[in-house]
Design a protein that fits this description.
mainly alpha, two-stranded antiparallel sheet, transmembrane, transmembrane helix
Length: 186
């Protein structure tokens, strides 16, 4: 009896395998940009590239620096926040340009070279501002910061400023690499 059930079970499994049909799905590939008008194309896929990811990291670290470095009680913390503000505005401007594909509207403008120069300047300013923030916070002249509760946040702001130096430096490295590759191609 058990042998008959086993044989029936194997026969049913074979029949069910024979009745299985394959399903094939086909799709149409589409462009990676979405048109919004005359020459403007939304390009969120830019942020999957290394320069796009670097810009998002720079913006995120700048927001953390804003949170840790404010309010600006001392002159050096005002300088630190000024540098962060200027770099943040320009980086958001570049994010918007690449997101909306606006660089295609001015094809003769040297976008890569301009971004390379900006990133080099931002890296240098961030180095100066972060070091000033860290050194001046440790100066005995500003001992009152410990008592009013701004010593640790200012130190954290300086450390995150150094992290943003690394982010801008990494962006500078990749931009320089891309610029050299474009100059070498005929």
């Amino acid at each position: 009896m058990a042998e008959e059930l086993n044989a029936q079970s194997q026969t049913q499994q074979k029949e069910s395998r024979d009745n299985i049909h394959s399903v094939t799905a086909t799709g149409k590939s589409e462009s990676t940009t979405v048109g919004l008008g005359d020459g403007i194309k939304l390009n969120p896929w830019y942020f999957k590239s290394v320069p796009g990811i670097m810009k998002l990291v720079q913006v995120l670290i700048a927001i953390i620096c804003f949170g840790c470095g404010s309010p600006a009680i001392t002159s050096y913390s005002r300088f630190f926040l000024f540098v962060i503000s200027i770099c943040f505005i320009f980086t958001i401007f570049l994010v918007f340009i690449y997101l909306m594909g606006l660089q295609a509207l001015l094809p003769n403008f040297p976008w890569l070279f301009a971004e390379l120069i900006y990133t080099a300047i931002a890296t240098a300013l961030y180095i100066i501002a972060a070091i000033v923030e860290l050194v001046m916070t440790s100066d005995p002249k500003f001992e009152f910061l410990r008592f009013i509760g701004y010593y640790r946040p200012y130190i954290a702001a300086g450390v995150f400023g150094l992290f943003n130096v690394l982010a801008y430096g990494g962006g500078l490295f990749f931009l320089l690499k891309e610029w050299r590759e474009l100059r070498q191609t005929p």
